[in-house]
Amino acid sequence: MPERDHFFKPVQFVDLEQMRSASSAECLPKKEALRLASGAIVVVIGGGPAGAFFAIQLLQLAAKLGKQLKVLVLERRLQTGHSKTVALPECWKGCNHCAGGISPRLNDGLRELGLPLPEGVIQSRIRSVTIQGYWKNITLEVPAGRELFSVYRGSRPSRRLDPEQNFDGFLLEGARRAGAEVIGAEVSSVTRAANGKPVITYWRAEFEAHVEADLLVFAAGVNGKPGLPIRENPMVWIIRQVLPEFETPRLRRALIFEMELDANQSPWLDEEIHFVEYGSKELPLEMCSLVPKRGFLTAVLVGRSVDGAREPDTARRIMRQFLELPHIRKLVPPRTQLRLACTCSPNMVIGSARHAIGPRVAMVGDLVVTRLYKDGLLSAQQTAAALAATALERGVDEESLRRGYAPVIGQFRRDNRYAALVFLIHRVVFSSSVLSRFLYQAVISERKNASAAQRTLEQILWKIASGDDRYEQILRAMMRPSVLWSILSGGVLVTLRNYAAELMFGLRWRGLGRFTTGVALERLEAKRAAFAHWLAACRMPGPSSYEFERMYTIRIRSPRARVFAALGRFGEPDREYLHPRWVQIRRVAGEPNVGGCTIEYRVVLPRFSFRLLLEHVVVNQLAVYRVQNGFARGGVLIFELETPKPDVCDLSIYVAFNFPRGRNWLTGPAWWLMRHAFPAFVHDVIWNHSLCQLKDFVEARHQNAGVQFQEHETSPSATSVPL
What we know:
- By secondary structure, this protein is an alpha+beta fold.
- It folds into three domains: about 45-395 and about 400-415, FAD/NAD(P)-binding domain; about 430-505, no CATH class; about 520-700, Alpha-D-Glucose-1,6-Bisphosphate, Chain A, domain 4, CATH 3.30.530.
- The protein is built from 18 helices and 31 strands.
- The strands form seven sheets. The chain has an eight-stranded mixed beta sheet, covered by helices on one side. Strands 24-30-29-28-27-26-25 form a seven-stranded antiparallel beta sheet, with helices on both faces. A six-stranded mixed beta sheet has the order 10-2-1-14-23-22, covered by helices on one side.
- β18 and β19 form a beta hairpin.
- It starts with about 40 loop residues before the first strand and ends with a strand.
């Protein structure tokens, strides 16, 4: 693992110098610092993650230092509600306008704070992240030892069965347990007393109250009202009462909508997040995501089309167009029923605030800075940790806050400059059919030939998708000569070679889904052991004895019986897949998927023709063919079906054979040369194309009839529409 920057480390209550920029020089304050003494009052405006994290970390650190503080958290969106069966504690009301992803880094911080996420709050444990490219998708498994979750930030959507199980309510409860007093109140103004302390006026129920604070922390976020221009946010006016020069961070609009899945349907994307890097000419999008929840799917859209979506009708049109994009429809199983549960257009921070620090006043969370496009919750936790340490270790006067807290904000600002370049390169590559194919092929080449620890490209893509490293480090890794060479040799050159093979064999991709079929080295090794068992049962040589070996796997959203039946047709003239030019494939004896079935491969060069005999069958699971004659005599072709989840199967194809040795001084050297010059990639190209054809045929995608959207939450009687 690369060395982590200070604001990516798990929270540790150490001297503040460990949280400062390495370039910040140490010097003594010019005057005595204002320190928080025991009994000091700290007021936090905003009970979202930034405010809750600050209260928790401040109180935990104060306890370590032997200080007792009074911390008040003022949050206007609190409710005491009741579900159908139990009374709810005070929890977060509504929604906090977020996709709800809990990154591995944030999980590290939560554990350090003694706040592991309870099972009820976790909506989905993410096993893989898929980056949707113009050419093909790249699926990345969550690395061992890392955890990626999805959660709901608040009680919305209203049709949820567990509205009390939400992340923001969980953090507020953590703040209460740490000793903070959480008050449902709305702040109306902030002034300064004669002694310079901020005085906060707030309304609680119907009563006005005032409190004088030794430290005031603004953690109200930028979405008091989603989509409202920041200059019209009442909180900005309140901030400028004590920080007149405050400048808000730059914002961008996002579009978030929740789709409810039909209760009778099998869950899909339930353990995988999809990042979509492009839309279409008519719908320009840049960074989109599909995040699974229990019974729901959260979609987040960012792009030029969303930037100008000011009217509800425009937002509905964008949502419908997004779901009708060909590369999105391919993700949706046939006959899927979706209902729009809720939608919003929140502000998204893409810059940083200026003049956000003053005497006894500071800000945390996205009101001041956040990681660009990724992991705002981690930014909230880390800015809160830095401010808490500064307030207790240095002081709350302006000079102390600038020396201790401002460098951390500067680190975020600096890393976001690198992030902007990383995301630009990422977007350009994945939105290009040519560049995305080069990168996809480079990743697959790396998977086939290197162990997981040596796959640099996968590691870079994982870190970009999950935010699991500083973007400066990610950019440096992207520019390494070894990475560029890997893309050139394993991506560009291999792609050009494969493209030539596709032209030669008449393989066309137009209108065909493009799906990953390449198998990682460790999976090949694991499956080789499994296939050895079947081959032994058929009295065939084991995999370790074969000179040529290939394996391909594709996921198909269909029951195994249907896939198995389609596999049995690969010798039929009217099959829907496997039609390479120069090769005729015909069943010449027996019945499909029945022992004794014989398939003939007739190639232009007779020497390379052969027959396959089906020798072992496990219905809807396994078919083992042996090569009867030709140059690959004694080789095997194995079809295996596994079911990782209901109505989804993984089809694996394993091919292995030995080359002839030759019988005299002339044929012996010729076959030796053939072993080393055999164009194995041709086999890859043909089966890659054929498996994608097979998947398209079996899944039998239905045309999207469109989704009926409503501006507000869908009522229980709302009509669902098939996709």
